[in-house]
Design a protein that fits this description.
Elements (H helix, E strand, L loop, with lengths): L1 H12 L1 H15 L4 E7 L5 E7 L25 H6 L7 H7 L3 E3 L4 E2 L3 H9 L8 E3 L1 H4 L7 H14 L2 H16 L7
Parallel strand pairs: 3-5
Antiparallel strand pairs: 1-2, 1-4
Helix pairs in contact: 1-4, 5-7
């Protein structure tokens, strides 16, 4: 309940930023401004995640690590928004809805069967997914599926207020000086 309230407060405080990003996307590439995508949540249940659209219209639900020549897929401001994770801001709505939390394993795409299977074997599917997580601050896009699952397992075994606090601090540090983002 506390994370929902915090998320709502952050959404209200960031309203001017959200409006500017929305206008920028509209000017640069038209609509839609918000990208909706089916993801896998707790207990392998489906939910719709919200993000600012950074890629051109018509791009399929392909896991980013399988995309080729991503530079031609971005809208003009898309790479910048991804680099600084501005595209993730609408996920605060997902927290308010109860789909995700601030810290947890990133939710898999509905068609990332290899990741879903490995996470299920390791009981990671029992965790609520998050906007940021242990694997995001320890490699993000530069990790293999196996490495992500290994890091998610570490989080599962060591989850605590202190670890969540460390993850949030390191996430903000990486927002200031991004690394590990390949697309």
């Amino acid at each position: 309940m506390a994370s929902k309230m915090i998320s709502l407060i952050i959404l209200i405080l960031l309203m001017p930023v959200l409006l500017i990003i929305s206008i920028l996307i509209w000017i640069v590439d038209g609509g839609p401004i918000i990208f909706k995508q089916k993801r896998i949540g707790i207990d392998n249940s489906d939910f719709i995640i919200y993000k600012f659209r950074t890629m051109k219209n018509g791009i399929d639900d392909i896991p980013t690590h399988l995309l080729k020549d991503t530079k031609n897929l971005y809208i003009k401001c898309g790479y910048f928004m991804r680099k600084y994770s501005l595209d993730e801001l609408p996920q605060l709505l997902n927290i308010v809805k109860g789909d995700i939390v601030f810290v947890g394993p990133r939710p898999a795409l509905h068609n990332q069967y290899d990741l879903i299977k490995l996470r299920s074997k390791a009981n990671i599917h029992l965790l609520m997914p998050g906007i940021t997580g242990w694997s995001q601050i320890n490699g993000r896009d530069n990790l293999t599926i196996d490495q992500k699952v290994e890091l998610d397992q570490y989080y599962l075994k060591h989850k605590s207020f202190l670890l969540n606090f460390i993850i949030i601090i390191k996430t903000f540090t990486q927002l200031i000086k991004p690394k590990g983002i390949s697309h």
